[in-house]
Amino acid sequence: MRKFLLSTVALGAMAGSALAADLPSTKAAPAPAYVPPAPVFTWTGFYIGVEGGGDFRRNHDSFLGTGIDQDAGLVGGVLGYNWQTSSFGISNLVLGLEGDAAAVLGGDRAYTYNGTSIYSTRYKSNYAAAIRGRIGVSAWDRALLYVAGGVAFGDNEVRYSGQRYSDAPNYTTSRTGWTIGAGLDYAFTPTWIGRIEYRYVDLGRGGYYNYHDFVNDRIEVTSHQVLGALIYKWGQPFDSAPVVAKY
User: What confidence score (pLDDT) does residue 3 get?
Assistant: First the structure.
C-alpha cells in the first residue's frame, strides 16, 4: 500500500509539471523598439549660393528711335532667408527676402550711324543687383514654386566717339529700377538646393549729352535675365518637434 501511494504521488507531480509547461507564460513581453518618425523638410532658414546665366539687355535711344541689344553673361552670388508657414488658408506657404549681385560679362555693343565711323555710340554694363521679396508654395515636398519682385540696380555705360571730336566723353551712370520674375527651387538634400529662374528688369531712363547733334539722348534700359543657381541652406534643416518615447 505504501509503494502504491508513493507511485501515485510521483505520477501526480509529473502530470502537474507537464500541465504547467503548457500554460501561457505570465512574464511581461519586452517593449517594442522606438522608431522615430521620419523628419519633415522645411524651407525655413538662411541660405547662400552662387548664380549665373544670361542677361539679354536692350537700350532704347529716344533720339535714334531705335533699340540696341546687348547679350551678356551674369556671374554672381545670392543671400536670403525663407520662412515656411501655413497661413492665409494656404498650406506650405513660403515667404522670403533675398539679395543678389552679379558681374555682367561681355555685352559690349557699338552702334554706328549711317554705316560709317563718323559718329558711333558704344553701350556697356558692368553689374546687376536686386533686393526682392519672394512668395511661393512648396507643392511637392522638396519643390518650391515662387514669384519674386523688388528693387533692381545696375549701371549703363555710354561712349560717344567719331572723327568730329577726339575727346569724346564716356558716361557711366548707376540706375535704380524694378524687377519681377518667377522660378523653381528644388532641394536635392536637406541643405543643397538647385534653382532656375526668369527675371524682367526695368532700369528706367537716363539722359546723356549727344555731342554730334548737340541734344540730350534719353536711353531706356530693360533686360530679360535667365539664371541658374546652386544654394546652400542652413539654420533649420528639418521641422520636427521632439518626441518622448513611451514604453
Answer: 52
